[in-house]
Amino acid sequence: MIAGNYRGSEGRVLRVIPRRNRLVVEGINRRTKHERPSQKNPEGGIVTFEAPIEASNVMLVCPHCSTGSRIRIKRDPDGTVERLCVRCDNPIPTPES
Ligand SMILES: [Zn+2]
User: Fold this and answer.
1) What is the Å distance from ligand 1's center to 94 Cα?
2) Are 91 and 84 a contacting pair, CB within 8 Å?
3) Are residues 34 and 45 in the same domain?
4) One domain, residues 65 and 43
5) pLDDT, tens digit, for every residue of 32-90?
6) Considering the entire predicted model, what is its pTM?
7) How far is the CA of 92 from the centre of ligand 1 (A)?
8) Same domain for 66 and 97?
9) Same domain, 40 and 14
10) How far is the CA of 4 from the centre of ligand 1 (A)?
11) For residues 10-34, b (16+ Cβ closer than 10 Å) or e, as one string?
12) How many angstroms is it from 72 CA to the middle of ligand 1?
């Protein structure tokens, strides 16, 4: 996170909402909701969940230099696409979902 209340904290991206330029990050922007008993949640009560945040407020953390960094897309002649860290030039693997 590079802005807002959670500036400086890190988390795993759980969900991406490209149409609204938002994403959901684990442990970030937790909200509590008071819910009535329902079929899904027969007890009701207080539910915590992560609310989506604006994509411009986050930065990818490079595993090699462990700072938030921008990435460069590199296309190999054989068609594979790699993400390279602009700081250290190391490829950043895309985690399997
Ligand atoms: Zn790096």
Assistant:
1) 14
2) yes
3) yes
4) no
5) 988 888 888 788 888 888 999 998 899 888 888 877 778 888 888 888 888 898 888 88
6) 0.74
7) 8
8) yes
9) yes
10) 24
11) ebeeeeeeeeeebbbbeebbeeeee
12) 11
